[in-house]
């Protein structure tokens, strides 16, 4: 494009008169370089500012006098109201319109386990059926069990049983044994203990695992993000299939795992109540030093698109963070991609701690006053004589 645009403009100058050409006709010459330096266009175009100008123009009530004052007063009221809402309890307002990527879908069914309460997003697009093989079904069941709060006590019981049989085991052997044998052990333990099943029948449904037939979706809106599969996003100008999750490694950057969403699957469990769960089937990049590196000065994370993660652990839940991968403009690093983290729309990080003021902390008054005991109410100075 950078080489063809000047040639095309020269050919147009041979056809049209000079009065036809102004600065706008010569502007495409600079567009390829700006695209390389600036990146994605949605972070540089003027549409958001034009929409905002149109919005503040509608706040003018008196168009004959003091137009700027009406805009200033309306803008101040909006900013003060938005700032004050962060100090109040969240309240559902029916008059408010639901923003993009905030649409929710909940069935009128009481969910009994917290792991099944993540259906706060909304699927979109054409749905299709997907049959899972034994390896994929076991990986999905293991991911759900390891991320369920009610199953943590059974994992500790399983680890204690392994140590009682085989003695002291290191963490790598225990983790491998949990991945291989824990789902089978958990299903047998729940099936044999009828008392436990009577107390919490949901554990029995959870132990049997999901159905082999799952629903395949191309789009999923959750947590202010719009996740797309890689096949659905091919040929589009937007990129919404990159994900990042926190691993077990130490450090903030070394424990990050980066990948792309290959499929969005909706699983269902065998039970009387509706128990569904959305999981992302991802392809991960190699997290080792040969597949991921961090720039020493700028702390830019880079991944090699040709190296994949060797371990089969494709499923993640909705807690992933969305990222996108930007290629290098030069040919020296054609195999590497730069990781760019995105922020969800309409989400403000309002986590803060209330600190006690210095004056309040220092000026503590002891309300307890010690008095001497009164033995006699008669004043000796008056009645002494």
UniProtKB/TrEMBL annotation:
* Record-linked InterPro entries: DUF4216, DUF4218
- Positions of the DUF4218 domain: 1-89
Give the gene symbol: LOC113785496
| Protein name, UniProt field | Uncharacterized protein LOC113785496
Against Pfam families, the record matches this protein to: DUF4216 (PF13952), DUF4218 (PF13960)
Give start and end of each DUF4216 domain.
266-339
Query: Origin, by domain of life?
Result: Eukaryota
Q: By its UniProt entry, which PANTHER family does this protein fall under?
A: DUF4216 DOMAIN-CONTAINING PROTEIN, DUF4218 DOMAIN-CONTAINING PROTEIN-RELATED
């Amino acid at each position: 494009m950078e080489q063809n645009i000047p040639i095309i403009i020269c050919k147009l100058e041979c056809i049209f008169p000079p009065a036809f050409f102004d600065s706008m006709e010569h502007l495409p010459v600079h567009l390829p370089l700006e695209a390389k330096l600036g990146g994605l266009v949605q972070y540089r175009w003027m549409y958001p500012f034009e929409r905002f100008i149109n919005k503040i123009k509608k706040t003018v009530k008196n168009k004959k006098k003091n137009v700027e004052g009406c805009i200033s007063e309306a803008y101040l009221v909006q900013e003060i109201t938005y700032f004050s809402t962060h100090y109040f309890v969240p309240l559902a307002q029916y008059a408010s319109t639901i923003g993009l990527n905030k649409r929710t879908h909940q069935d009128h069914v009481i969910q009994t386990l917290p792991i099944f309460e993540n259906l706060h997003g909304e699927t979109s697009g054409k749905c299709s059926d997907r049959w899972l093989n034994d390896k994929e079904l076991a990986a999905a069941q293991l991911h759900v069990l390891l991320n369920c709060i009610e199953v943590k006590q059974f994992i500790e019981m399983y680890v204690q049983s392994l140590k009682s049989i085989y003695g002291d085991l290191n963490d790598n052997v225990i983790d491998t044994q949990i991945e291989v044998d824990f789902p089978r052990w958990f299903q047998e333990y729940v099936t044999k203990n009828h008392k436990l099943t009577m107390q919490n029948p949901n554990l029995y449904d959870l132990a049997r695992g999901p159905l082999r037939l799952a629903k395949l979706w191309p789009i999923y809106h959750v947590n202010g993000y719009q996740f797309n599969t890689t096949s659905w996003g091919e040929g589009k100008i937007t990129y919404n299939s990159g994900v990042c999750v926190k691993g077990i490694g130490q450090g903030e950057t070394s424990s990050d795992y980066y990948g792309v969403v290959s499929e969005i699957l909706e699983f269902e469990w065998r039970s009387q109540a509706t128990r569904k769960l959305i999981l992302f089937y991802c392809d991960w990049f190699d997290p080792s030093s040969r597949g991921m590196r961090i720039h020493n000065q700028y702390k830019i994370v880079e991944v090699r698109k040709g190296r994949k993660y060797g371990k089969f652990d494709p499923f993640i839940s909705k807690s992933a963070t969305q990222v996108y991968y930007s290629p290098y403009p030069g040919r020296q690093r054609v195999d590497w991609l730069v990781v760019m983290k995105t922020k969800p729309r309409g989400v403000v990080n309002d986590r803060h701690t209330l600190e006690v003021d210095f004056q309040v902390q220092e000026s503590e008054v002891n309300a307890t006053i010690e008095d001497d005991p009164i033995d006699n109410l008669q004043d000796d100075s008056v009645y002494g004589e």
